[in-house]
Amino acid sequence: MTHTAGAGRPRTGATFLVLCLGILSYALSQSLVSPVLPTIQHHLHTSQSTVTWVMTAYLLSASVATPVLGKIGDVVGKERMLLVALLALGAGSLLAALASSIGVMIAARVIQGVGGGVLPLVFGIIRDEFPRDRVSGAIGTAAALMGVGGGLGIVVAGPIVNTLDYRWLFWLPLIVIAVAAVATHLFVPESPVRAPGRINLPAAALLSAWLVALLVPISEGSRWGWTSGRVLGLLALAVLLAAAWIAVELRSAEPLIDMRMMRLPAVWTTNLVALLFGLGLYSLMAFLPAFVQTPPSAGYGFGASVTASGVFLLPMTVTMFFSGLAAGRLGLRFGARAVLALGAVLLIPSMVLLATAHAERWTIYLVAALCGAGIGFAFSALSALIVTAVPPAQTGAASGMNANIRTIGGSIGTAVTGSIITSGAVGGLPRESGYTHGFWFLAGAAAVALATTLLVPKARRATVAEPVREAGTLVPAADN
């Protein structure tokens, strides 16, 4: 089906602004809470181990909802499901703002996690609605905004709590979400591009089950013990459920995630790189603030407040935004794979610098700037590679899995990096050597990411307008 964003359809400029607002609202909801978990722990009278579920529950819910909502959007309509994702995000924010116990707060974060479907739905709408020559740049900017919103949340969380109250970490995003939902209804057209068929409920249930079985022990491994029966048992269960999920998908006439699509070289290699970059980004955002907040009496750190630690990450937010803006143009000229490699090239020296020279403030600012630029380039290129590698009817499902794999990488990365950093901790504080070894681990992951980009097939430079071959059939790369 062919259409243009012409007469009778809203202008793509207004549509794009609304889509960016939706992504920003989700990204802020994801990151605002992380720096203030101790504050939430104090106000809701709970333990440190329990309050971590405020983040874990959100990530688990988002991991399940992202690919499922992306697929449902492909079938029933992306604009409709984008509204559903935003409404769930808003409902969760409202419940979290009103929560008087940790149980209600965790339930609210589960509901918020359903908003993870925003990302693949936005990518699908861009591909369906925008002119071909604008798709790459628009996807790059939208993907960069996800990282920018994440960094911005960490920067502003401290001032919001100090000026207002921690509950405003949910009230303020709720206002943005409400505006985004109304604007989506008014300005985002319903795409005529549909994937035929119905939602494969057994596949959705198995996908949800193996993701939960995988991410729970990864998140709790350092507390339960990596060799404990619970961790090993859940990991084994995750393998069995994942195998069952793949078998169901392969035998299904209407799969939730098309395994033929996932086997495409451009798809599986891009997903592997996404796993590694997710590992680096989430780990850095989790542990760099903790590093700079450490009092100098420990032999390292700067004794920064929550607000000041956010300022250390401000360069990351700025460079991530501008590199995301530039990624689309660079991708059209040099190819998305080259932009992806550039992201890894910037990430490696920043991690090495962090591991070897972290005693000066300027080093942290430089590291944050380099990491932001590298991740901005990489996330934009990853999104473009996935969207242009699959037919339009599978954009939501493919983008959802790619975003999901980044989250899985982040869960693995924070768990492993946390174990490295906290090994040998004294008096509740990690040793400096723990951070050094953790940062070297992230440098190694960045080097592996660079090597993995060489496996990504090299596409012709006109990446967006090129056709894609799948299972011997020529499929148009865009439906404009």
From TrEMBL:
Domain Major facilitator superfamily (MFS) profile stretches: 15-461
Chief place of localization: membrane
Keyword Transport part of the UniProt annotation: yes
Source species, domain of life: Bacteria
Record key words, sorted: Cell membrane, Membrane, Transmembrane, Transmembrane helix, Transport
One Pfam short name: MFS_1
Membrane topology value: Multi-pass membrane protein
Subcellular location: Cell membrane
GO molecular function terms listed in the Swiss-Prot or TrEMBL record: transmembrane transporter activity
Entry protein name: Multidrug resistance protein 3
